[in-house]
Design goal:
Its cofactor is Zn(2+). It is a single chain. The chain has four helices and five strands, in the order H-E-E-H-E-H-E-E-H. By secondary structure, the protein is α+β, with helices and mostly antiparallel strands. The protein has one domain: Cytidine Deaminase, domain 2. A five-stranded mixed beta sheet has the order 2-1-3-4-5. Strand 3, helix 3 and strand 4 form a beta-alpha-beta unit. The structure holds zinc ion.
Length: 159
């Protein structure tokens, strides 16, 4: 485990573009907060997802989980990069539920790209310090996490 995953420039560009495209699919009449997420598979496939809200607010599904559920149900059980974009001109990070959900399917070293809405591919370094992508590892977002391998730990027998 723990191999550092490095995105190629090509995959990185594709992923960023896909996150913006994914945002178009948002159904967010209540929050008016659109989110687009894109996941990269080890084979270079990209799966997009948007947030899908519900009149019963608790039934809402975030963009990241939409993308992961789409991927997993199509047989992609491992993802190697995530990109997320909203309409906010800041890097917005995945919520706690999505972090745990994704933990099942990714390496702790997976890169997570949080894209400000004003990101401009022509100026990836930003303009006047704005529009810069924030990139962190998954582990940075979810330290000391609980994952599938924890279930394989030996137990102390019950009395
Ligand atoms: Zn979420």
């Amino acid at each position: 485990m723990s191999t550092t995953l490095k995105l190629s420039e090509e995959d990185r560009s594709k992923l960023i573009k896909a996150a913006f495209e994914a945002r178009e699919g948002s159904y967010s009449p209540y929050s008016k907060f659109r989110v687009g997420a894109a996941l990269l598979s080890p084979n270079g496939e990209i799966v997009k997802g948007a947030n899908i809200e519900n009149a019963s607010y608790g039934a809402t599904i975030c963009a990241e989980r939409t993308a992961m559920v789409k991927a997993a149900s199509e047989g992609i059980r491992k993802v190697v990069a995530l990109a997320v974009v909203t309409d906010v001109p800041d890097a917005v990070s995945p919520c706690g539920i999505c972090r745990q959900f994704l933990r099942e399917f990714c390496s702790l070293k997976m890169p997570v790209l949080m894209i400000p809405a004003n990101y401009d591919a022509q100026h990836p370094e930003g303009v006047d310090g704005k529009g810069v992508i924030k990139e962190v590892t998954f582990e940075y977002l979810l330290p000391l996490s609980f994952g599938p391998e924890d279930l394989d730990r030996p137990r102390i027998p019950a009395e």
